[in-house]
Design a protein that fits this description.
The chain contains 5 helices and 5 strands. The protein is α/β, with parallel strands linked by helices. It is globular. Bound molecules: 1,3,4-trihydroxy-5-OXO-cyclohexanecarboxylic acid.
Length: 138
């Protein structure tokens, strides 16, 4: 299986960004352990703080990869463009969030990704990404 994790804005700061919410592990540290744990998966990672770059990446991989694990971060709640990109592609998208967006501010309850996602995993910390990987394995 060929999967990619696409992370949106500010997720490059994982480990030092609001650690009480997002934990103290960097994404690089987490990604190394997850790659070792699932050697049968071809797993890539892409991060950008730029909305259009995220859309370009979704389009680039969206007709050939087996799955996209998308944490669009704040753009989840604002970006019609990212929502449209997810609707436009063929590769199934699993939406993930580290925090439980539904027990936070109201503006985080809205998602432009969710209507076209295969499924949604929120609130399990970095384990949300691992659960999304497992959802593609069978
Ligand atoms: C997040 C939740 C979003 O509301 C927030 O803007 C983020 C991270 C999460 O993974 O919990 O940047 O997507």
């Amino acid at each position: 299986k060929k999967l990619i994790i696409i992370n949106g804005p500010n997720l490059n700061l994982l480990g030092k960004r609001e650690p009480q919410i997002y934990g103290s592990l960097t994404f690089k540290e987490f990604f190394e352990t997850i790659k070792e744990k699932y050697p049968q998966v071809s797993l890539e990672h892409y991060q950008s703080n730029v909305e259009g770059e995220l859309i370009n990446k979704i389009q680039d991989v969206g007709f050939s990869y087996d799955g996209i694990i998308l944490n669009a971060a704040a753009y989840t709640h604002t970006s019609v463009g990212i929502g449209d990109a997810v609707a436009a592609i063929e590769t199934p998208v699993v939406e993930v969030h580290i925090s439980n967006t539904f027990n936070r501010e109201d503006f985080r309850h809205q998602s432009y990704v969710a209507p076209n996602a295969k499924g949604i995993i929120v609130g399990f910390g970095l384990q949300s990404y691992e659960l999304a990987i497992q959802s593609f394995l069978k």
